[in-house]
Write a structure and sequence with these properties.
two-stranded antiparallel ribbon, mainly alpha, elongated, single chain
């Protein structure tokens, strides 16, 4: 470091916490943003600080990364708590990200979040954290010491995106981080992370441009949870609800047409589950009343579905003959007893000494009093 550079850095050290200004870099030179106050005491110190910042940036432009890191570190230490420190920290973090030293950059970002979350350039901090997450997701390797390639870890991008959201929950990158988590979680077979990200996106950012995609992914995720009509259909109904929300709230989205088709498929699946129960009750349990109840439930869930048409056919069969066809087992062992209809009379109590439930009546006990002891 030459004498001129040392003098600039020594001058920067003298500034201390006096600097309270919004700085921008224009045409390679740092300056106070027009229209913003430059709280520098005394004002004569401001040009010296700007020269020191220009010199540090010039070192980086010239490819002297080590020198730039040292000079920005000195500027930051000389201006603790001031805007100049925040700029110095952010500049160092960007250098570390450029070298692939993501851990060091993350530590600096934590410091900026803790002590400089209100400085004007804070948006750059959020963008830098978002860049780290994206580069990790792309499989980029960390570089130890800025040169030695380490193992790639795409899954760690999820934590980096989550940190981006914590840095600015209402920022412009929050919803994009959530959809990025969901996309990577889907590819990496991380259903829990995928589901959490999608649920947060549709609930916390309903007006996001990524909301239709999130609803589509949620619907597909729920549909996969259903193993077919023979299983519980709660996830099927939930999937249909997500598709309906997509169609209602985003009718101009290209996915809306697909939503209408998927709703019909899912409603048919849910209705067919009732149809399977109707067939079971009629053919396997000799219970035409329960079979008709399930068949009508099938028709109510999806009146226009193929399952509803099959339910109508089954209802007509039951009305024509309430006795199901006998199988070989029925002929050998006899048919299953038909459940008693609800309208049948209850069994009469046999014997005056039995109560309505068939238990023996007990004689009433005499009250305990002074005369009965």
């Amino acid at each position: 470091m030459n004498l001129h550079s040392k003098l600039l850095l020594v001058a920067a050290l003298l500034l201390g916490a006096h600097v309270r200004a919004e700085f921008i870099r224009v045409d390679g030179a740092w300056q106070v943003k027009p229209g913003t106050p430059a709280d520098v005491t005394p004002p004569s110190r401001l040009p010296v600080l700007l020269l020191a910042m220009d010199h540090a940036s010039g070192r980086l432009d010239a490819g002297d990364i080590g020198g730039a890191l040292r000079e920005w570190e000195i500027i930051g230490e000389a201006n603790v708590g001031a805007e100049a420190e925040a700029i110095a920290l952010l500049s160092r973090a960007r250098i570390f990200v450029g070298r692939g030293e993501f851990e060091k950059a993350t530590l600096i970002i934590d410091d900026l979040f803790a002590r400089h979350s209100s400085f004007p350039g804070y948006g750059g901090v959020v963008e830098l954290q978002f860049e780290i997450a994206n580069r990790l997701a792309d499989g980029e390797r960390r570089r130890l010491g800025g040169w030695f390639p380490w193992f790639s870890d795409r899954d760690s991008a999820i934590g980096a995106w989550e940190k981006t959201i914590r840095l600015a929950p209402n920022g412009p990158r929050a919803d994009e981080c959530l959809i990025s988590i969901a996309r990577l979680g889907s590819v990496r077979d991380l259903p829990t992370k995928t589901n959490e990200a999608l649920e947060r996106l549709v609930s916390d950012y309903p007006d996001s441009k990524f909301a239709p995609e999130a609803l589509e992914m949620l619907a597909q995720l729920r549909a996969k949870e259903s193993l077919g009509p023979a299983w519980d259909q709660a996830s099927t109904i939930e999937a249909a609800d997500h598709w309906r929300t997509l169609a209602d709230q985003f009718p101009n989205d290209p996915r809306a047409k697909l939503a209408v088709e998927q709703i019909a498929v899912l409603r048919d699946r849910a209705a067919r589950a009732r149809l399977e129960l109707a067939r079971f009750y009629f053919f396997k349990r000799n219970n035409p009343e329960a079979a008709k109840l399930m068949a009508n439930a099938c028709r109510n869930i999806a009146p226009e579905s193929a399952a509803a048409k099959e339910a109508e056919t089954l209802l007509a069969t039951i009305d024509k003959d309430p006795d199901p066809p006998k199988t070989i087992a029925d002929r050998l062992l006899g048919t299953m007893p038909r459940p008693r209809a609800v309208t049948e009379a209850k069994p009469q109590v046999v014997g005056e000494d039995l109560d309505a439930l068939g238990f023996k009546k007990e004689a009433a006990k005499a009250p305990v009093g002074p005369d009965n002891r």
